[in-house]
Amino acid sequence: MAKLSVNINKIATLRNSRGGNVPDLLKVATDVQKFGAQGVTIHPRPDERHIRYQDARDLVPVVYTEYNIEGNPARSFIDLVLETKPTQVTLVPDADDAITSNAGWDTIKHKSFLQEVIAEFQRNGIRTSIFVDPVVKMVEGAKETGADRIELYTEAFAHEYGLGNMQGIKPYSEAALVANDLLLGVNAGHDLSLDNIKFFKENVPGLLEVSIGHALIAESLYLGLENVINMYLQKLK
């Protein structure tokens, strides 16, 4: 069974839009784990427009499952990860002003930089994952950086699946097979939803973990958070 890590950025967005502490981010993190999620993901950005750096610190004693912190490894982000020591750090090459992540790393062009950052995290006992497009040479490049895992950027799959094109899964299946052969763990995330998650899981060999936030929170507005988490868990079996 692939693990479900719930990205709680949207909870922070809602809280920040009104000020105060409603909804309570720490309570939500506690509840998603109680409801069965096997991890909590956050993606702090430099402008702290949703998750704040202090949230990352405050979540340390709250997250008792897997704690995954995503972000672009600027020095401030690196220092935050080294301070909080999550289970996993996922390196994402998003620009400061990006609304959401929109591309994977060029693991060949940025090989030296990624090697340096990954080595620093691994010396501190933090599992590393690199956000990549489903391109075989980028998966092979990720292996050369010393990363423990890759996270497949799944927006293209989700788009094609929504159009009824089941062939959109092929690059992901092929990338996962290469990763398996290289002994790289495979995670995935971005635009995965209740509609497409079962098909994705069934066609991506060795899938270890998915990180889902926007769709899961939106679905929960209608169906309830506890119910939606358990629906995902059933589809990920």
Automatic annotation (TrEMBL):
InterPro entries on file: Aldolase_TIM, PyrdxlP_synth_PdxJ, Pyridoxine-5'_phos_synth
Catalytic site positions: H43, E70, H190
Catalytic activity field: 3-amino-2-oxopropyl phosphate + 1-deoxy-D-xylulose 5-phosphate = pyridoxine 5'-phosphate + phosphate + 2 H2O + H(+)
Keyword Transferase: yes
Site feature (Transition state stabilizer) residues: E151
Catalytic activity, EC: 2.6.99.2
Classification via Pfam families: PdxJ
Enzyme class: transferase
Function: Catalyzes the complicated ring closure reaction between the two acyclic compounds 1-deoxy-D-xylulose-5-phosphate (DXP) and 3-amino-2-oxopropyl phosphate (1-amino-acetone-3-phosphate or AAP) to form pyridoxine 5'-phosphate (PNP) and inorganic phosphate.
Keywords: Cytoplasm, Pyridoxine biosynthesis, Transferase
Main location: cytoplasm
UniProt-recorded name of the protein: Pyridoxine 5'-phosphate synthase
Binding-site list for 1-deoxy-D-xylulose 5-phosphate: R45, H50, T100
Record's subunit section: Homooctamer; tetramer of dimers.
Involved pathway(s): Cofactor biosynthesis; pyridoxine 5'-phosphate biosynthesis; pyridoxine 5'-phosphate from D-erythrose 4-phosphate: step 5/5
Subcellular location: Cytoplasm
Binding site residues for 3-amino-2-oxopropyl phosphate: N7, R18, D191, G213, H214
One MF term in the entry's GO annotations: pyridoxine 5'-phosphate synthase activity
Keyword Protein biosynthesis in annotation: no
